[in-house]
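Contributing new records

If you add data, match the layout below exactly. Sequence lines come first and carry their own label; structure lines follow with theirs. Keep one chain per record. Anything else will be rejected by the validation script.
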Amino acid sequence: MNILYQLNDDDCFFPPADRASDEGLLAFGGDLSPQRLIVAYTNGIFPWYNEDEPLLWWSLDPRLVIRPGEMRVSKSLKRTIKSGKFEVRIDTNFREIMLHCAETPRKEQEGTWIQDEMVDAYCELHKLGIAHSFESYQDGELVGGLYGVSIGKAFFGESMFHTVADASKVAFYHLHQFLQEHGFKLIDCQQETEHLKSLGAYAVSRKDFLDELKTLTVEPSLVGNWGIGNYEELYLSIQQPERLHFRAYNMDEDVALSDD
């Protein structure tokens, strides 16, 4: 049975992520407050929805990941990195990175899932030192980059874009190097793409992913501006009550169930 849960408005918690449907859909509703987003990522959950949909929350199975120290760097990419063709900056232009990610056309995708409220929400996380951007510039122009959320020793990649070949790969390389230097253990790439697989990403089961997060997200987080080195280690975990109640719906039969 595929069950969809309705989130409560008076708290920021979620049902267990392993209750997500076969497609990875777990819940709807709630908001994009910093507290709820922190709880979501800590528990292997992320928001993903279109303009005409309610706020939807997902936990995919399998999950695409890559570990710092395991990035696959081709000979041509090595040459590009060494050439200095791109200048890479960190945490200097977060909103523009998100807007470019939203505006860049994707294969087999109409429109964008990065709505205005998503941009505002993640920019708030960036101001709090929890969301970060890696940016590639060519002749002073932003031509590629990525953004994501950092909790504990895990980095949750959200989206990337490029307008010049290899610009996003170079940004990802610098992210990978930074995370490796600072003791991170996991980069979450969410869903499978050939672009990320070419860089060394691979799929793991949701169970293994969630089990690993239990260890990694209770570690102190590197909070602040990574670009200027103005950061400190802080604990971001939010204590969850032992018992939570959610309204549930049977998606197979489109009927409401008793509260869980």
